[in-house]
Every structure is written in C-alpha cells, then in structure tokens.
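Record type: monomer structure entry
Structure origin: computed from sequence
Chain ID: A
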Amino acid sequence: MKIIRGIFIPVGILLALALALATLSPFFSPGEFWPLAFFGLSFPFIALANILVLLFWLIQKSRWSFVSLGGFLLSIWNIPAFIQINQVEIPENNKANLLNVVTFNTHYMGAYDYSGGDSSFFFNMLDTLAPDVICLQEFANLGGNYEKPMFKKFFAQYHNYSNVNADALSNTFPTGYGVCIFSRYPIVNKGFLELENQNSNLTVFADILFAGDTIRIVNTHLKSIVFDKDDYRTIQELKDGDETTDTYKIRKIIAKLKYAFQYRAKQANKIRERLLDSPYKVVLCGDFNDSPTSYSYHTIRGDMKDSFKESGKGMSRTYIGKMPSFRIDYILHDPSWNSYHYRTNTLNFSDHKMVSCTIAIP
C-alpha cells in the first residue's frame, strides 16, 4: 500500500494541476499560448482520472484528498457542458412561439465512408422533428451513386423552404452547398458573417421573419483538423498502446491540432465581433470542431445559452468518428429565450450526430 500511495501522490498533484490548466484554457487564445488548448481538449479524461484519485484518497481517509478535491471544485463549472441529468421538456402552459431547430454535419451525405443501411431514417427523423430551421455543414453533392438520390429527395422535401448557401453568396468561392441554412420562414437578408477561410470552413447568416419579428440565424463550420489516413492510423496505435509509434507522426498530429486551434481562435474572434454588432437576437448553430472547454466555444458563446445545458440529458457527444468522441456541434441562442427537448440522433452516413432542440421565443 505504501508503494501505491507513493504513486498516487504525484499523480494526484499533476492531475489537479492539469485540471487547473484545462479550466484556464477557454480564457486564453491559442494564438497567444497554444499549449493550454490541449489541456482544454483533454478535460473530460483529466476530470475522470482526478475523480478516481479523489475516491482513492477518500477511501484511504487521507489529507491528500484535499488536493484532488481542490482540482475538482476548481473545474466543476465545466461539468454541466458535458453531462446533464434532467431533460427539460416544453411546459404544457407554454405561450411562447416555438422554433424547431436542427443542425447537422452531413459528411457529404456519406460520399466517403457510408456504412450501409436504410437512409430513410434521416428523412423520417426530419419529419418527426418538423424543423423550422435547418443548418447543414459539409452539404455538397459530390455526385456519387449513394448521395445523389439523398440530395434529390432532400431538395424535393424542402423545396418550399427559403435557403442560404455559401455558393450563392459568391461567384468565386467556395464550392458546393458546404455551409447552408434552410428556413420555413421568409429570409429578408443574408450574407457571410465570417470568412477567414475561403473554402468550406466559414460562417453564413440569414435574417428570418418569425412571429412578427426578425431573428438572425447563424451557421458556422470552424476550421477542421484535416487528418489523413496515416494520422488516423497513428491515433489508433496510440489508443492501442503501441510503444513503437514513430514520434515524427505524433509531432505531425500535434502540429495539425495546434494550427487548427489557432485558426479557430481567429474565426471565433471575428464571429464574436459580428455577433456584438448584430441588430437582431441570434440563434447560432454549427460544427465548432472544438469542445466546450475551448477558447472558440467560450468566445462564440459569450452570454448566449447552450441548448444542451438548458435541456439535454446524459453525456452528450456529437462527433462519432475516428477521433475520441466529443460534443463539437452546438445550438446556442439568445439568453432571453429558453430551449427545450434537446436531442441527438445517429445517422449511418455521417461521423456527426444530428442535433435538434425547440427554442421558445416570447
């Protein structure tokens, strides 16, 4: 037991320190000090390890429990962004106007790694959710035999919806319906909110007329990491504990993460600047490619409400690809509104879950 305690003491101290750094990461731009972003990304794993060490010290009735407890208390405000207990449904006496919102990174409707199965579930879910606003990312028809019918059916089903897509806003870039908004309600204005990246990772907005008022809908897709097959193989090797993994490959992954952290910080700063200038209240959807303990999430959210924190349940994760699972897809909205019925649904053609909620607007 003495040896075990001797191991747990430095481990507990390091975990508490790592939690402190993870807690600080949302407040410091990766452009100024990028190492903190890695602690923020690792927060769920660090927090879980710290809790296990805390339980060990509590069982041992050791004063070292105060170190782990301090780390836990310091970071506890982050936990609701990852875990929610009570799902909030729409109250029966609700008198507010209800806006059903869906956001989804479609992963090009399965153009790259469709795993088979009946795609009709996607359209059945949309029928069930009855969305008033649909924000899509990676929604470009690449012309494959599988996704072409999907696009045809989608546009047939929502032909009456007004829409904004990045192609229509520019004659030169980007290509495809990469980032777009579909609205049941009339769109009176539209444009780019942020255009740091003139390819697929950008931000568009649409001002819609809803319940006698104008609301700004924002759809963003922040900078992707752009891992290749070799990177994913390295990640799998690390998961498997392969000690022969080439250090160059690990450094390559770290470099790509660093670049993406810093790029997203620039995008987040621009989005926050434009949100502060918005003449209307905002619903913001999108794929942030970043966790709730990131600078980009913290900066963009500002004082807006997070629909998962408002009405989610369980441990949310929206990315289900080859990297560790995180919540990186969000629906945020004006703090004066309430959101209900947060849901995620797994589709068989995307590495993201479809996210939905209902926003009550007085």
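Annotation 1: The radius of gyration is 22 Å.
Annotation 2: Residues 2-81 form one domain.
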